[in-house]
Amino acid sequence: xxxxxxxxxxxxxxxxxxxxxxxxxxxxxxxxxxxxxxxxxxxxxxxxxxxxxxxxxxxxxxxxxxxxxxxxxxxxxxxxxxxxxxxxxxxxxxxxxxxxxxxxxxxxxxxxxxxxxxxxxxxxxxxxxxxxxxxxxxxxxxxxxxxxxxxxxxxxxxxxxxxxxxxxxxxxxxxxxxxxxxxxxxxxxxxxxxxxxxxxxxxxxxxxxxxxxxxxxxxxxxxxxxxxxxxxxxxxxxxxxxxxxxxxxxxxxxxxxxxxxxxxxxxxxxxxxxxxxxxxxxxxxxxxxxxxxxxxxxxxxxxxxxxxxxxxxxxxxxxxxxxxxxxxxxxxxxxxxxxxxxxxxxxxxxxxxxxxxxxxxxxxxxxxxxxxxxxxxxxxxxxxxxxxxxxxxxxxxxxxxxxxxxxxxxxxxxxxxxxxxxxxxxxxxxxxxxxxxxxxxxxxxxxxxxxxxxxxxxxxxxxxxxxxxxxxxxxxxxxxxxxxxxxxxxxxxx
Length: 494
Description:
Blueprint: H1 2-19, H2 29-38, H3 42-52, H4 58-70, H5 74-114, H6 116-121, H7 128-145, H8 153-171, H9 178-191, H10 195-222, H11 233-246, H12 253-276, H13 283-308, H14 322-340, H15 342-365, H16 374-380, E1 388-392, H17 396-403, E2 407-409, E3 414-424, E4 450-456, E5 461-474, E6 487-491
Parallel strand pairs: 1-3
Antiparallel strand pairs: 1-6, 2-6, 3-5, 4-5
Helix pairs in contact: 1-5, 2-17, 4-5, 5-7, 5-13, 5-14, 5-15, 7-8, 7-9, 7-14, 8-10, 9-10, 9-13, 12-14, 12-15, 13-14, 14-15
């Protein structure tokens, strides 16, 4: 009962971190695309996914149903991910408990509750929170299916079918789930008893994979994830462990990385002691930990090998499914270490949780550490009472349209306006924090325009140029504030 009480507190803390600031940040580019999809009817949603997304449709179907109840506002659209992220904490607790008992379960749950990357994607209207939950749940069911002993045939079939169903859902959420589901399936084929039950369980993920293959090939041809290779593979690999520990950005980042890394090393040192038998533990827990450690290593290693082989879509968020498993392993390791060095293990857990909390709270308080602030940029444009021409980043249309529903792509040959606004956010690659362009002496877009306003936000720059009266301006290619080709957008108030 005491353990369940502590679990309730951990879940409550994790829920607060996820729900309390759901609308604290602007929707960024990818979330704005999600919002646009969810505003379509169901048929339109399904038709749009192949051309606009690089992931399968399950999350969007669930989110479409969800937002019909809670709306497509920032909090409404993200609340599904927050709920899924909170549920992931409970599954990580169950995983840790299998590896090392009640203490391991609570330790693993605490690590998951405050992990900055898990919190980040629990506040994002994308598929990653669902991927993390299904990955953790499929792994829990997989361990149960491999459980030693002599369960009845009916119970064994139920476990295998449950794993197969969740594995199929994971594949329908994100293609990278294959790197987890495939090793699990192979392990079941080699080790689980009952050929007929195995075949029935494997049928569900096999059918899901076959059904999704045409969509995956079509989305691959669209190359909507081409931006990933704009940064070097070795750079992304080096960023991965840091981002797993403290997220994309954090205040006092070097210190938090050092503290978090030491805590993680303590956890995995305890895990090594558990696996090698240097510390006493039941054989079942040791075997389960060995299976999960091997599965986690393979599931992370396969996409890395694929990237080096040329199929490079490796980025931290695509391998997020590994993080709940790593939390369970680290929790089991710290719980094991507590038998030998209780104060050291408690200090390591406290340090990891403190580092996570500082990172999460720091991001919530500092706009420079947050998502692109399209909401702030739209507000800086001011009230729009007459036709206006906007020169913005080449990819700004979808993100800005969420906050300016009357926004349209400018059509040649000309647009009648008395105001031309320049809006720019920096192009950010994963792990980077570039400053927005800040022209010291900006040139007027045309003769007769004077600078009527300037807003230098933390993550954006807006310049507003006005002419004395409405005039026809040509619609032609134009550079933005950063000197690169820009999008020409228009707003005509209704």
